[in-house]
Amino acid sequence: MKKLPVTVLSGFLGAGKTSVLNHVLNNRMGMRVAVIVNDMSEINIDARLVDRNSSALSRVEEKLVEMSNGCICCTLRDDLLKEVSRLARERRFDYLLIESTGISEPLPVAATFTFEDETGRSLSEVAQLDTMVTVVDADSFLEDFQSLDDLKDRRTALGEDDERTVSDLLIDQIEFANVIVVNKCDLVTGEERDRLAGILHHLNPEAVIEYAVRGKVSPQAILDTRLFDMERAEASAGWVKELNGTHTPETEEYGISSFVYRARRSFHPLRLGALLEQSFEGVLRAKGFLWLATRHDECGLFSIAGNTLSLEPGGRWIAATPAEDALGDEELNEYVGQTWHPEWGDRRQELVFIGIEMKQAAIRANLDACLLTEEEMASGPGAWLGYRDPFPSWEYADAPDVMAL
Questions:
Q1: Which helix (H) or strand (E) holds 175?
Q2: What is the rounded CA–CA span in Å between residue 155 and residue 151?
C-alpha cells in the first residue's frame, strides 16, 4: 500500500504554527488532509481553530484528530502511534499534518516513525515522514534564544523534572528542521529578517528557509517535499557540519561566522572553570568534545545555546575502552583513523563556535590559556588527578550542569 506522507510542524509557543496550519488547510489544492493537533493547555485553542477548518472541509472527508493534555514526544507517543497508524490504514487521506506542542522537540517525534512496538511493527510500514518544519517568530526569536529563562520560568515545563531552558529547546527545533518558516516578517525590517536568516542558516545549513506573514507560506514549501532523511537530519546541525569539515560561509554583511577550535592537550580544570564563568562575547551557539585533565578517560560534551552553557558527560573516550569493544566496526575504524593520536588516542578538544561579531582570536587565546602547559602534559595523568576540579561529578549526573553566561 502507498504510505501516508507526513509533515510535522514544530516551533516555540507563539511562533505561529497554527496560522501556518490553517493557511495550508485553506490552500491545500484539493488534497485530503488529516490533522493531528497536540496542545498542552486545558483549553485547546489551537484545536478549535483547526476544527473550524476541518468542519468547512467535511465535504472532502477531512478529519481532525485532537490529542490533548500531553506531549507528542513524551506521554502521548503510544497515542500518536495508534492515531497515525489508524489514519494511514484508512487510506482516505492524501496527507497528514501533525502540529506538535510549542515545547516539543522534533527528534523524538521523528523517532516515533521508526519505533517498533512489541510485535515488531513500525509506523514506517504505513506512513512516511516527509518534512520536519520549524516555525520561528522573526520578532522574538533572538530575544528568546538569548534569554536565561527555563521552561519553568515561562510556566510551560512538562513537570518539576523538566529542566530544559528556552534556548535549548529552540536550538533543538532549529537544528533538526528540513524547512524553517520565518513568520511575522511584517514585524521586523528587511535587514533584521535577513540577519536572522543568516543566523538560522549557520545553525542549520541544510534547512530551506521560507518567509511568512501571518503564517501564509506556500503549501508546496512544506508538503510533499521529500526532504526528510533521518541520517541526514541527525547530521544537519551547523556545528556537526563544521566538525565534519563542511564550512558554512560567513555572512559578512551581518558579521555572522563560525570556526572550529582544536587542540591535543587537555584542559586544566581550574583555568577552564574560571574561563567558563566569563561571557563568550558574540557566541550564539557552541558544541563539541572536551578533554579535562582530571577526567582523563571521560569525554565531556560542551554546549552553548544563547546565554546558557552546559558541560556534561559524553561517555568514555575510545582510547579508554577495551580494544575488543571496537573490533569489526568499520565506521569506528574510519573515525579512529581520522582522529587518533599515538599517545592520547582520540582524546582532544574539538569545539565549534557560531556567532555574530565573535572575537575569534580572543576566544582561541583564552582557550589556549586553559590548556596544560608542555611541562604539565609531561607529568602525566597520574599527576593530573591531583589538580583541584571545580566541576560537579559526572559519575552520577542526571542532567547537564547549566551555567548562565
A1: helix 166-175
A2: 6
Residue 35 DSSP class: E
Q: Do 227 and 131 contact (CB within 8 A), yes or no?
A: yes
Grid coordinates of 272: 577552564
CA dihedral 316, 322, 325, 329 (to 10 degrees): 80
Cell, residue 229 = 532523511
Cell of 35: 490533522
Unique residue bearing C-alpha cell 528540513: 178
255's grid cell: 558579521
Return the amino acid letter for 324.
E
* Secondary element (H or E) of residue 83: helix 77-90
Cross-strand bridge partners of residue 298: 316
For 292, phi and psi rounded to 5 degrees?
-105, 130
From first to last of its 405 residues, the chain has per-residue pLDDT tens of: 688 899 999 888 888 888 898 888 888 777 888 888 765 444 444 555 555 555 333 333 456 665 554 554 444 566 777 778 788 888 888 888 888 877 777 887 888 887 776 777 777 888 889 999 999 999 999 988 887 777 776 676 666 776 777 888 888 899 889 999 999 999 999 999 999 999 999 899 889 999 999 999 999 999 999 998 888 877 777 777 777 777 777 777 788 888 999 999 999 999 999 999 988 889 999 999 999 999 999 999 999 988 889 899 988 898 888 765 555 566 666 666 677 888 999 999 999 999 999 999 999 999 999 999 999 999 999 999 999 999 999 864 444 444 434
Residue 122 three-state SS: strand
Tell me, what amino acid is at 143? E
CA angle 380, 382, 386 (to 5 degrees): 110
Residue pair 238/203 in contact (Cβ under 8 Å)? The answer is yes
Q: Are 180 and 210 a contacting pair, CB within 8 Å? A: yes
Local structure of 119: helix, strand or coil: coil
Q: How far apart are the first and last CA of the chain?
A: 53
Write out the three cell numbers for 217: 507560506
247: left (phi over 0), alpha (psi -120 to 50) or beta: beta
User: Do 97 and 21 form a contact (C-beta atoms < 8 A)?
Assistant: yes
